[in-house]
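Re: duplicated header lines in exported structure tokens

Our pipeline writes sequence and tokens for each protein into one text file. With two proteins the header for the second block appears twice in some exports. Here is an export where it did not happen, for reference. First protein block:
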Amino acid sequence: MKIDCKNKCENKNCENKTNSSYIKRIIKLIGPVILGSKPSEIVNIPGCPEEKIIKLNEIEAFFGNCKKVKYKIINVHDGSKRVLFINEKSMNRRLLDKKCRNFLRFLGYPREYNFEAYMRELMLRLESEEFPHEIGIFLGYPLKDVLGFMGYGKQEFVEVCSWRIYGDKEVSYKIYNSFLRDKMKMHDLVEKMSISELKDVI
């Protein structure tokens, strides 16, 4: 049943009151993933174990059957939890880039590209004690910046936006601005719609 009270009703059990605040924050954060400019985003799940369970249940309730975004729970070796939100279409496009794929193969990812195999390898690394700095590729950062950060690139460090930029900053800011644009678009959408309305369109 569609709920269209838009947080104005007095029902304390209303879906829009009980879970909209946290889920709406998530949606704003991963706007570029939802809209496709960014392949993925990692979100930390804060709180005590009980609070983490509640938050993960809310994520499952909203994103479990989501058409545009899938998610994977990262059980970090130190006991904390993160969630990797993925736009499969955008991620496939990113990983089919020959230069990105060749670098990932160099780092030990499967020789033959398969989406699920690459995601499994990434998850194994995200749950290990050594953080995989190649995550930048999966997050949609320019390859030149990922290479520079990992010490493989020949271009000099220039400055920091949301990540460390190496070499031509115009290339990096073009990508950064696309992320920012989609984040603002989703922010505006979230402010106008109820949680149920958002679930219908995401």
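Second protein block, exported in the same file:
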Amino acid sequence: MPFTDYFAAPFEPEHDAFERLMKKYEPKILKIVSQNAHMYGNYLYSPSDRDDLLQIARYAFWEANEKFDITKVDTEKNPENVFIAFASRTMNGRLSDYLRKHYKNASREAYSSTDDAYDIPDESPEPQRVQMLRLLEDHLPYLSPRETQYLNLTLFGDWDTKQIAEAAQVSEHTVRSWKKSLRKKLAPLKEELMTKGSRKS
């Protein structure tokens, strides 16, 4: 059962209990984000990168709450202390996975730019993530919160359908429906990019 079943006050809705739990441990969440960001500081280009880390950490905290099994806690230990240790491991794991992939992508881009030093220079020196956000900027207002969440987690967090379904507490079928809707809404962007590509060639 979720840890909030233990943490909640009598008759307190689960959502309210979770919000209260997250607020209580927000300083710890921020500290974990800061520690992970510090290790990969050279590859985080803007404040929005750190915002992504905070979002990932908060999802991981929610995931830890859902997966926590209080029946496995030793009777001599404080359940809340055990939960926070478990949540911290979950957050560190998610952030580490994301940052390693982020680091690999950044390193690959840096290598490519060095390798092409005597070739045609790149017209856009911006990081790839910033370029993607710039392309999507005009289309984001038309996306639902769920579609935006899906886009962010798949594009920048490299989450798969199962992970998103577990974090959002929905079925994988529902997540796939977000993907389908997202493709329809971003179809004009795809056509725009194809048109630009044909003009350059």
